[in-house]
Amino acid sequence: MVKKVLTVGEILVEIVATTRGDGFREAQPLIGPFPSGAPAIFIDQVGRLGTPAAIVSRVGDDDFGRVNLDRLRQDGVDVSGIEVASGEATGSAFVRYRADGSRAFVYNIVHSATGRLTLTPSAEALLDRCDHLHVMGTALSAPGLATVTQEAVKRIKSRGGTLSFDPNLRPEILGTPGLREALDDVLAQSDLFLPSGEEIFLFTETDDEAAAVQELLGRGLQQIVIKRGAQGASHFSGSGRLDTAPIRVDEIDPTGAGDCFAGAFVSFWLSGSSPETALRYANAAGAHAVTRLGPMEGAATRAELDALLPGPSS
C-alpha cells in the first residue's frame, strides 16, 4: 500500500525584488505573488510525483490564499486540512537577492492566518488518513504551528507511521523560545533526517561530519541524507555511504530547491525504491527546481526528472 504523506506548516506567498541589493530600505520593482512556504513546496513536489499528499495549514480568505490552494489542488495535494480564515491575511515573504547570491527576507508568518493554526475537525480527520509525516523546522517556530505539528507527530507515530525531518532553519528564527527543545523531540522520533550542509551539526557537539553522522545513526535514525546544493548530496545508513554528483543546470532561483529535493526523496523512499534511486531522483528534483523563478514553480513531474537522469532506474 502506498503511504499518504502529510506535512504541517506555513503557506504563504513570495514576492521577489527584481533588483539585487541588501533589503528593502527603498522602493524596488517586484514580481509575484508566487505560491510558497517550505512545507507547501515540499508537499507540492510530493503531489507532482503522484504520491498521495496532504497538508494541514491555514490561509486567509484572500487572493494570496487562493493562489496557493489552486496550485496545490492542481498538483494533486489533498487540501481538506487547510482552513480558510475569513478576515485574516495569508502569510507573505518579501525576498531580495544580494550581490553574492544570499537573500534578505521580510516575513509575515507568525501574525498571519498560518500563525493562528489550530487542529480543526477536518484536519483531525486528515491525520487519521495519513501514514507518513514530514516535519520542517519552520513548523516548530510559532506556537500554533508547533502545537499542531507535535500532535501530528504523536498520532502518526503512535499507530506505526513513519517520520521524516528537515530542519530548514533560517538564522532569523533560531532564537525562538522553545524551538530547540521541540527540534530535539522531533529528531528523537524521526526515521529519516534531511539536513542541509552544516545543519548536520545542529544536534551534536562535534564539527566533524563523519562523527556527527555516526552519532545520529547511533541514536536510532535509520537514514540521513545531507543536501549539499551545487555539490550534490550524500546518503548515510547502517549500510554505509552513497554520494551523488551535482547536475549542472543554469540556476535562476534557488528558493525551494531543498524542499523539492526532500519531496522527491521521501516519495521514492516510501515507494520502496533503493536509496541510490531515491537519492538520484531527489538530486534531480533539486536541480530542476533552481531553473525556474519562484519557490514552487520548479516542482517536477517524474517525466521531467527522467529527462535530467537518462538511463534505467530501479
Descriptive report:
The chain has 314 residues and is an alpha/beta fold. The protein has a single domain (5-307), classed as UDP-N-acetylmuramoyl-L-alanine:D-glutamate ligase (3-Layer(aba) Sandwich). It is 33% helix and 23% strand. The protein has nine helices and 14 strands. It has helices at residues 38-48, 63-74, 121-127, 143-158, 179-189, 209-218, 257-270, 275-289, 302-308, and strands at 5-8, 12-17, 30-36, 53-60, 77-78, 82-85, 91-97, 103-108, 132-136, 162-166, 192-193, 223-227, 233-237, 240-244. Strands 1, 4, 5, 6, 9, 10, 11, 12, 13 and 14 form a ten-stranded mixed beta sheet that branches. It has a four-stranded mixed beta sheet with strand order 3-2-7-8. β12 and β13 (233-237) form a beta hairpin. The longest helix has 16 residues, at 143-158. The protein is globular, with a radius of gyration of 18 Å. The chain starts with a strand and ends in a 6-residue tail after the last helix. The model has no long low-confidence stretch (mean pLDDT 92).
